[in-house]
């Protein structure tokens, strides 16, 4: 495993993200929505650094069907609180192709949100990407498969306090173990 962003760097990145979000909204109340499951670690750290009044909700987006390749993207909003006429901030772990953020934006807008902004910890720098961009990004990273700080491989590694690149042999060993 190769550490890409260590604990100290993550803390600084999240603090910077929070300052940018605070500046954008000032003291306007927001509804902040965690995209399950990958954003849970970031979410807990981020919302405690935001100073405006917040309602907190969750939504689930799953596209990685047990691997490192994306499968069909499914959004589950059954547990989401009411977002009608609210200023919504969506928090996700990583912006890769942008399909997840684009679909979440459309669905929350269709639910009547007054505005939808998006914040992500990581944005992969890659060629094919949706035209929709996240509003707030803590770190840009190369196009490699990363785990830790909420991000998983086969639901493992979310607990790591850093972001790391999984080596091919670790991918193979993990799927042999839990897959
Ligand atoms: P997108 O829809 O932008 O292509 O992908 C977003 C979702 O794919 C993320 O929320 C995350 O669940 C998953 N994903 C994309 N890249 C990575 C990665 O490098 N590592 C992990 N663990 N998940 C990723
Ligand atoms: Mg995700
Ligand atoms: Mg995943």
Give a quick precis of the structure.
This protein has 179 residues and is an alpha/beta fold. It has helices at 7-25, 40-47, 99-110, 168-178; strands at residues 2-5, 30-36, 54-64, 70-76, 87-95, 115-125, 136-142, 146-147, 163-165. It contains four helices and nine strands; from the N terminus they run βαβαβββαββββα.
Determine and state the CATH class.
Alpha Beta
Total DSSP E strands: 9
Largest sheet: 6 strands, mixed
Bound molecules: guanosine-5'-monophosphate, magnesium ion
Given the C-alpha coordinates, what overall shape results? globular
How much helicity do the residues have?
A: 25-40%
For the largest beta sheet, what order do the strands appear in spatially? 4-3-2-5-6-7
Main location: cytoplasm
GO molecular function: glycosyltransferase activity
Keywords: Cytoplasm, Glycosyltransferase, Magnesium, Metal-binding, Nucleotide-binding, Purine salvage, Transferase
Protein name: Hypoxanthine phosphoribosyltransferase
